[in-house]
Amino acid sequence: MDISLASFRANRVAQFMEGNHLDLLVASNPEHILYLLNFTILGQTYQARTQNYAVVSAHSDVKRLVISPSDAPTAVDFSREVELVCHGSFHFDFCQPYDAFSTRLQSQIGQRQSSPAQALIEAIRRFGGKKLRIGIDELRTPVTTWNLVAAAFPDAELVPALSIFEQIRCVKHPEEIAQIEKSTHIAEDSLLAALDSVHLGSSEYEIGMNYRTEVAKRNAHGYFCTCTIDKRTAFSDTCHKKDATVQQDSLLRFDYGANYDFYRSDLARTVVFGNASEEIKTRYAAILAGLEAAEAAMKPGVLACEVFHTAMAAVKEHGIPHYERHHCGHGIGLQIYDPPSVSASCTQPLEEGMVLCIETPYYEIGKYGIQIEDTVAVTTNGIRRLTHTSNDLIYL
Predict the structure, then answer these.
(1) Does residue 340 contact residue 332 with C-beta atoms inside 8 Å?
(2) What is the dihedral of CA 271, 273, 278, 280, to 10 degrees?
(3) pLDDT tens, 33-54?
(4) Number of C-beta neighbours around residue 115 at 10 A
């Protein structure tokens, strides 16, 4: 693809703004702000109540960022092209005389607004116009802020834009696919390294922490790891227990990922410490058949629901006739769940450049859970597997 990542993103945003007849598009979620501005705000990543907004227009190249002055130095240091609209009373002292950076920062902080909502209103007002159609990412926009914006622009039409952002992001640039692949490899290699230290008596908590340590060694963040042992393998997503420990012939299920340079991975593997029962072997073969059938069916134009039905039929045919699932995969990128969902109701066609996690887990409460999850990129004629380790049962 002979186009830069920045241009690719700008084109995707422009395409979907035009398709949804939007004059302005407002991002509230950190990943969506990152997509619009290639900039992330630290405070919003660990304080859910923090409000930040990026605002772009279909009619100009101006980009505005609504932030606290506490984040302004980082934003000014990052970019000369983004206009800041600040709110709140956070204070910096400045050395005298001002250097060039201090002068630029002072001019950007400017006249502060009293609240995030008022700053967002000011950012929108500066674009001009009255009968605007404004898409607002509702994911991190409080109802009170939404209502204040609506009251400030009574002639405007406010449109929920979370789904618009998700569709913008669901097709990836080659650089994004490379980042997801790197994140995937980091997660895989980290799990294998963590498994080297598993022994009789190892706890879920210990193994999970070892995994996160291995991810950190590879310059990424282990943002989640579900490590479960024996009957708890059927618990799907759960917290680690310190008193759940490995015994001889224990079954371990891992659903895990890494965050590398903002791009996420999501994988799953099943591990046996000793010997696996014939039932586990048979049922694992069935879910593996489902995953492989799904991947073989994937190419541009195939509907996500068709991939789902292919996976389900293969699992049932190969050994779990009562198999049920709500989905057999999902897109991935800046967030762990991107469109499309590989589910019975999703009629979205696959496109070249989509990256999906394909999974066929089986959970039987009171007995065990087994899982495989692969990451693949949709290509011109099919898929390219981004996962580089085996999907077979892992024996320790």
Answers:
(1) no
(2) -30
(3) 999 999 888 777 777 788 999 9
(4) 15
